[in-house]
Design a protein that fits this description.
2 domains; single chain; Urease, subunit C, domain 1; alpha/beta; 387 residues; six-stranded parallel β-sheet; six-stranded mixed β-sheet; TIM Barrel
């Protein structure tokens, strides 16, 4: 049994939107799972193989990118870019969720082909994690001709995601709603493209369309890139209970509106955060951190609440055993701190000041996957690691 201890933690952000901060300074990991979080007493009588001294830094759950468009491996033909998933790891992202492999060259659009692509992507990312990141790939893109038996077949093969409704040939509620019902019957999580057009070939999706189809996640309610109108956004927030996804490459004004509406309604737990890349606006490895910083500094919420939107909220929506620092959860963790020169003294205060924190270390399943992020500014404090 391998045990890892993280000690001398200045602040622990839980990832739980209902209790965003923990009163603890030590985390014990056993075989890749969080065993306990508390004071130094949790290490008494315990043989530890590795000790990470956080040096007073903040520890958060690994960030979850709720909206990616991968193909296979750590390459995207959309932007002709290698290593973009590894770069996201250096921005604190430990999990990515595919919203559909839409940029696959020659993407098939018949039922046999879309099923084959979903199974291939799902199994490929399961067998090979780019840079260690947990990429949940193989999000089925809905095309005409799919039947209920196809969803049963896919579920048996391990596919459990439906990519953004509207990416494929099935766009209208009358066509999409029955397929979404079949998907839910067989245990799928369903996303739906929302708002105006983003790239050539995309279409406009209204609040009424979303309500009629009934997805689990309202993808990029703040646009990807063109958002629904403020009136449409308010209708989605107030008339549904769907998860509401805010993305980096969307409209910041509508993002702010949605967060403030949800805060007033006591529904911050509905908000999740994604990048929506690779997209027409490019690849932003620090996109999740940038959105967290935007919301924490401009939308009337704390840094810890914004982090929960990019961790525990998303994990709960998609049924993942990560995103929260609690016993029994996968030990996907980020050590971060205020960057040198920031107005904020800690990682959370830096976020609330509008800065990006310095990522000093990233662990996935209790294993260190990145040190001294190649993308963020340097952290003020230092981490020491004894093996």
């Amino acid at each position: 049994m391998k045990r890892v201890a993280i000690t001398n933690i200045g602040q622990i952000v839980s990832g739980d939107i209902n209790q965003p901060l923990l009163t603890a300074s030590t985390i014990l990991i056993e075989d890749g799972m969080i065993k306990a979080a508390g004071g130094e007493e949790i290490l008494q009588g315990v043989e530890v193989q590795e000790t990470i001294d956080a040096g007073g830094m903040t520890v958060t759950p690994g960030l979850i990118d709720s909206h990616a468009h991968p193909v296979l491996g750590d390459f995207t033909p959309r932007q002709k870019t290698l290593d973009y998933i590894s770069s996201s790891l250096h921005g604190g992202v430990t999990t990515m969720i595919s919203a559909g492999e839409a940029h696959t060259p020659g993407r098939p659009k018949d039922p046999v082909g879309v099923k084959a692509l979903a199974i291939l992507a799902s199994k490929s990312f399961y067998n090979e994690r780019p840079a260690g990141v947990k990429v949940h790939g193989g999000a089925l893109i809905l095309e005409p001709g799919l039947e209920e038996k196809d969803f049963a077949e896919l579920a048996a093969a391990g596919v459990w995601l439906v990519g953004e409704v509207g990416l494929g040939g099935v766009k209208k509620p009358a066509e999409a709603a029955p397929m979404v019902q079949w998907a839910h019957k067989h245990g799928f999580k369903v996303m739906m493209h929302t708002g105006g057009t983003s790239i050539p070939g995309s279409s406009t999706v209204t609040a009424e369309d979303v309500i009629q189809v009934g997805p689990d996640v309202v993808s990029h309610i703040n646009g990807g890139t063109t958002a629904v109108s403020p009136e449409e956004a308010e209708r989605i927030v107030t008339s549904t209970a769907f998860a509401l996804e805010i993305v980096q490459c969307g409209n910041p004004k509508v993002a702010d509106q949605v967060v403030r509406l949800c805060k007033a309604r006591g529904e911050l737990g509905r908000i999740i955060i994604g990048n929506d890349s690779p997209s027409g606006s490019g690849i932003i490895p620090l996109g999740i951190l940038r959105t967290v910083s935007q919301l924490a500094s401009m939308s009337g919420i704390s840094g810890a609440e914004a982090v929960a939107m990019a961790t525990g909220n998303t994990a709960r929506v998609y049924g993942l055993n990560t995103g929260v620092i609690a016993p029994g959860k996968e030990a996907d963790l980020v050590l971060m701190d205020a960057p040198l020169g920031s107005a904020g003294a800690t990682a959370m205060k830096a976020l609330e000041a509008g800065d990006l924190p310095g990522v000093a270390m990233v662990l996935i399943d209790g294993v260190v996957k990145a040190e001294k992020s190649r993308n963020t500014p340097p952290a003020t404090r230092k981490v020491s690691w004894r093996r």
